[in-house]
Design goal:
The chain is mostly helical. The chain is about 80% helix and about 0% strand. The longest helix is centred in the first third of the chain and has 29 residues. Keywords: Signal.
């Protein structure tokens, strides 16, 4: 996975908006929510990987997902009020843990729901922000 380029994201904020585009505040809020959502997803995947594979490969995978989750949470905080982003992440964490019945053996439920979207948001965050700006 590629690291988020926050510099590129911030530059996109400065791009002029079309007449029918979301206002900047709403676009940033929606993008921040998605970043928080994917942050929690990656953090839970990291925890599942660390519990399942007690190998160097499993540890490396866990670290990679943890780093992605932390980077996305930093992004969520940068696009909204820090307390709001953290509160969202906490609520989303509770929701996702409930979805898997607090059992990491059920992590495929989250993977099925979030994996594709969150990998895309992580790898192509600039495009996702532009999507919200163009709405």
């Amino acid at each position: 996975m590629l690291n988020i380029s926050l510099a590129l994201i911030f530059m996109l904020i400065l791009i002029p908006f079309s007449a029918n585009a979301y206002d900047q505040s709403r676009a940033k809020n929606n993008f921040s929510y998605e970043l928080a959502e994917c942050s929690v997803y990656f953090l839970l995947i990291s925890e599942a990987a660390s519990r399942k594979k007690k190998t160097q490969e499993g540890d490396e995978l866990s670290i990679r997902y943890r780093d992605a989750g932390e980077a996305l949470l930093e992004g969520a905080i940068s696009f909204s009020h820090p307390e709001t982003a953290v509160a969202r992440a906490e609520l989303l964490m509770k929701e996702m843990i409930a979805d898997i019945d607090n059992n990491f053996e059920n992590i495929s439920i989250l993977m099925n729901k979030y994996m594709s979207q969150c990998e895309q948001i992580y790898e192509k965050s600039e495009e996702r922000l532009q999507y919200w700006l163009d709405q």
